[in-house]
Design goal:
The chain is α/β, with parallel strands linked by helices and 256 residues long. The chain has 4 helices and 12 strands; from the N terminus they run βββαβαββββαββαββ. It is globular and about 45 Å long.
Length: 256
């Protein structure tokens, strides 16, 4: 089976965002399909220097000279559950360090596909939609400035040993690593700077995919802007059936 593993893929030597993750292979060719991913441990650069995103860029949605480097992973289910929790050190999903240089939009979004409707920062490139999780520890102070400009909440990694959140799909209960009891609100955010295991592994480990069992994949076709608003919604597609084609869109773009 095809693999995305590539020698030398590190934060200081990221790959282009266009490389497909193992969970995305075969989905992008579907009609209207668009990759939906998370972006974590990221750092923004403006003209080669680490920087927050200027308020003028956010106001005009023009990002010339701006790029971002970080870990990317799929939002396709069920691997997307690990991805949106920030669990990259568990070896259950494919991920790699990527650089994104064609930023088209950066806005606050709210969608059921992410943590049951939690608000998030969404970055849209010409290739994919990225839900932004947490920055690299060296970029935290700069990201706080960007969050303040956007009026967006902090997004942290979830503790795998905590109680299962209410938004976790029941069909994937067996994939939750912590307590079986659910909580109606999101678990308290963890301090990423104290998670030395993830911090160390993410600096040196190449893309990872060590599945013990086959996954039943559910592709996304992206997060689309609602017409006339700054809100976003997903265009979900029916699960892919072996030997068949991806089903018709379940949710369509909101009109005025």
């Amino acid at each position: 089976m095809a693999t995305n593993q590539q020698t030398g893929n590190q934060r200081v030597n990221p790959a282009a965002e266009y490389r497909l993750l193992n969970e995305e292979l075969g989905f992008q060719s579907s009609q209207g399909a668009r990759c939906t991913r998370v972006l974590a441990k990221f750092e923004f650069f403006w003209n080669g220097q680490a920087a927050s995103i200027p308020g003028s860029m956010l106001a005009q949605q023009q990002f010339a000279g701006m790029k971002v480097v970080g870990i990317v992973a799929t939002m396709n289910l069920p691997q997307g559950l690990d991805a949106q929790c920030g669990w990259f050190g568990l070896d259950r999903i494919d991920w790699f360090w990527a650089t994104i240089e064609t930023i088209q939009e950066v806005r606050v979004g709210e969608d059921q596909i992410f943590r049951g409707g939690a608000r998030f920062v969404l970055l849209r490139s010409e290739f994919a939609d990225y839900i932004l999780l947490f920055p690299h520890k060296e970029h935290e102070h700069l990201w706080q400035s960007t969050l303040a400009t956007l009026g967006a909440p902090v997004c942290e990694m979830l503790l795998p040993e905590g109680a299962r959140p209410s938004w976790w799909p029941h069909k994937w209960d067996s994939l939750w690593l912590g307590m079986e009891e659910t909580v109606s609100t999101h678990p308290a955010p963890s301090n990423l700077t104290e998670d030395q295991t993830l911090a160390e592994e993410a600096e040196v480990i190449l893309t990872r995919l060590d599945h013990l069992e086959p996954w039943a994949l559910e592709p996304d076709s992206g997060i689309q802007p609602a017409a006339g608003t700054h809100k976003w919604e997903s265009v979900r597609r029916a699960p892919h059936k072996p030997g068949g084609t991806t089903g018709a869109p379940i949710a369509k773009r909101i009109q005025r």
